[in-house]
Design goal:
By secondary structure, the chain is an alpha/beta fold. It has helices at 2-8, 10-22, 46-57, 70-80, 89-94, 110-119, 134-146, 161-171, 207-222, 312-324, 328-331, 333-350, 359-365, 381-385, and strands at residues 39-42, 64-66, 84-85, 100-103, 123-126, 151-153, 178-188, 227-236, 242-251, 256-262, 264-275, 278-283, 290-295, 301-305. Mean pLDDT is 91; it is low at 1-8 and 374-400.
């Protein structure tokens, strides 16, 4: 039992260890290079606390917080010295002193907050997955463009200095063309209470939106264009969300991506990028600061290090601030996020997995929404979750803004 508990909480433990490694060092002067914005956060969960923590390391503080439960917002503000607690989200949107908002709530609530924040003229950094599906992201981008503000996906891979450096070298032709990306990501999430965010369709649970976004982002970052072909297989959890999947993508240039995701079976968080002149391996890639290049010609290995895992969220803030200041590279990261969201949406729909918010689309496809009462035998994974032939329980929606 102790081993399973440790694998369930390994991400949090890794984040804590990364923070501990940098907390006593002077904060790097080269992270925040653009004019600093005044930030507020929506949500008070783990990732919001990590953001407040890294801002404190940098000698900065969040200027505001809003949450569905006022008591949680007050406790968060007291802990991190946040200037203002808003009684409503609308009050936050209307505050002219706030420049940017960080959205940290469950995936399926993002679009509601994006609509309000972007339409109010706020720049937005939104946690992964940035929206539920491609249509929502297209809507959010349209609102941002109409109001002249920046929208940015907070998927860490898009912002880590290591990948910026590797991409710089790839773009310069040093590695030759990319041929193949092999990407794994496997978590072990206990079944237990299936109302948790990992398995609950009312919280947009499932492997694709929780961890698949990392796998697809790292591959897309180095590919010449978005995939045009996708083939896949997936197993669903008893709740109807995707639990395990394997899929292959190919773009117009013939570059292949081979992906393996699992939510109830551990895999290494590992990517291998195979170029003409070398291959690059990165372990624990979501917040990686180290890669190994093995050169084809003579087999010698080169270690590349850039950035620090413990500053991962600071890099996200820095990129949004750079985008606001006119940095085209930072502003263009949303295009990568859109390509990733297109593939994630396509895969889910190919598997017949629609969330309750997508009920109309599910009806058109002739399938029930994930988590519907009486849903039939879902997949082989069902037998592992309960007795064979069991039907998925109806799971109550969770509130927004936690």
């Amino acid at each position: 039992m102790s081993m399973r508990l440790s694998t369930t909480h390994d991400s949090a433990a890794a984040s804590d260890a990364a923070y501990a490694a940098v907390q006593d060092r002077p904060f790097p002067s080269d992270i925040f290079t653009a004019p600093q914005l005044r930030w507020a956060v929506i949500g008070c969960g783990v990732i919001a606390n990590q953001m407040a923590q890294v801002m404190e390391l940098a000698g900065r503080r969040l200027a505001g917080v809003a949450n569905r439960t006022p008591a949680k917002a007050l406790a968060f503000a007291e802990r991190w010295g946040v200037e203002r607690v808003y009684d409503t989200f609308e009050e936050l949107y209307a505050d002219p002193s706030i420049d940017a908002i960080y959205i940290t709530t469950p995936h399926n609530t993002h679009i509601t907050f994006l609509r309000g924040a972007l339409a109010a003229g706020k720049h937005v950094l939104c946690e992964k997955s940035i929206t539920l599906n491609a249509a929502e992201l297209a809507e959010a981008r349209s609102i941002a463009a109409a109001h002249g503000v920046q929208l940015m996906d907070a998927t860490t891979i898009l912002h880590m200095p290591l990948f910026r450096e590797l991409r710089r070298r790839a773009d310069a032709g040093e590695f030759g063309p990319l041929v193949l990306a092999q990407v794994n990501f496997g978590s072990y999430k206990e079944y237990g209470d299936l109302s948790n965010r990992f398995y609950n369709p009312h919280l947009a649970g499932g492997a694709m939106l929780d961890i698949g976004v990392y796998a697809l982002s790292i591959a897309r970052l180095f590919m010449a264009s978005a995939p045009t072909e996708v083939v896949s297989l997936a197993n669903r959890a008893v709740t109807g969300v995707d639990e395990t999947s394997g899929f292959v993508t190919r773009n117009a240039e013939g570059q292949l991506g081979v992906f393996s995701l699992s939510l109830h079976a551990k895999q290494p968080k590992r990517v291998m990028l195979s170029f003409d002149r070398c291959y690059i391996e990165v372990e624990a890639y979501p917040r990686a600061d180290r890669a190994v290049i093995t050169w084809t010609e003579d087999g010698h290995r080169e270690i590349v290090e850039a950035g620090e895992e413990g500053y991962a969220l600071a890099y996200e803030v820095a990129d949004l601030e750079r985008a606001v200041a006119g940095d085209e590279r930072a502003a263009g990261l949303i295009d990568i996020a859109a390509d990733v969201m297109d593939v994630m949406t396509r895969l889910r729909y190919d598997w017949g997995i629609y969330y309750p918010e997508e009920a109309e689309l599910a009806s058109e496809a002739g399938v029930p929404v994930a988590g519907a009462t009486g849903q039939d035998a879902l997949a082989p994974a069902e037998a592992a979750a309960g007795s064979a032939g069991a039907t998925a329980p109806a799971i109550a929606p969770a509130p927004e803004g936690e």
